[in-house]
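Hey,
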Amino acid sequence: MENEIGEIYHLLLNEYGNQGWWPLSRYYSAGALPPTVPTGYHEGDYRPPEGDEDVLEVIVGAILAQNVSWIGVEKAIRAIKRRNGFSMASLRSIPDAEMQDLIYTTRFYREKAKRIRDALDAISSAGLSRLHERPAEGLREFFLSIKGIGRETADSIVLYAFKKPLFVVDAYTRRLFSRLGLVDKSEDYDAIQAFFQGSVARDHETYNEYHALVVAHCVRACKKADPRCGACVLRKRCKY
């Protein structure tokens, strides 16, 4: 990554360290609910998810994460876990009304319960083990074919559940790199993704870490309102 995008990656990594995405319930901290700070991270360990239940948990989590903070998602994941875990059989046995109750902390929980049901049905029909054999682009098309799953959610699933190299573009990516003058904030999702994938070697560990670091930086420094520019490790590069 001997280019500006690569240099930014190393500056963020030096500033924040490994982020340990995607958070999983088997790493959650013990204690009373709700957590005040998200848990479940596994810094520097890129082996997870391991096994079908981990994979299904990431898929469900990616759907739940649409338009909501992760704290709300973690509450819902904990509730599903307490109910009977993340096996395909257990998840598909949950009636729609009960699923809505379990995930009500994530906003739009009725729609999300339907998306989870549709995703589980599609995965069950295709075969989870066979999905692992598909290339990144094929997996992306599979998840995009499920109503309610858009490009950001599909790419998050491909990257974090299946460990295939697709760069995830979200609002944080647009904010940070438009302020750095490297992308147009209004540019199409696929164009921004192509820019990153042309600048960073296609490696799922790097894409995993880079996306997580962008989120960390935007949450702590490059805020939407009142950015903490004086504390920003990228301030000398910023055009904002």
